[in-house]
Design a protein that fits this description.
The protein is of the alpha+beta class and about 160 residues long. The chain contains four helices and seven strands; from the N terminus they run E-E-E-E-E-E-E-H-H-H-H. The chain has a five-stranded antiparallel sheet, with no helix packed on it. InterPro entries: BVU_3817-like_C_sf, BVU_3817_N_sf, DUF5606, DUF6852.
Length: about 160
Amino acid sequence: MNLQGIVAVSGKPGLWRALAQNKTGYVLESLDAQKTKLIANLSTAKLAALNEITIFGLEDDIKLTDVFGRMKDAASVPAVKDDGKKLREFFYTVAADHDEEKVYSSDIKKIISWFHILKDMPLFSEEAPAAPVADEAPAAEPEKEEAPVAEAPKAKAKKAPAKKA
């Protein structure tokens, strides 16, 4: 899934797509039907890119994209307003090794609500852009020793004599 450019803004519900960047922050557009525009000032708003979010795990942190992938493969995803125990049980099926003490029920509700927003979007089914892989370098030529280049002496700047007033 390609979650590049999708962010969550602290204090704002839902998810946002980063459209552009200006001097003070980002121009964002909501992913809901209203397509609300927002200018997020970096000095006051906290932005979290979905492709960089991790969930506390018992041994290692779990990437949110991995959890979304397991949720996509799950038979049914509960609604956000379902019972907290039901949500926690479902979350154990998609992120079995999450840290129960550090992952709160509000976090689970937020992740499930994000999934419901993203599941029908085309970006959710497309592949993430892979990092460019460097091709193998051609056979290295034997290195030639180069003579050290002597540095030219730096010219000293002369100060103009001070004018008397």
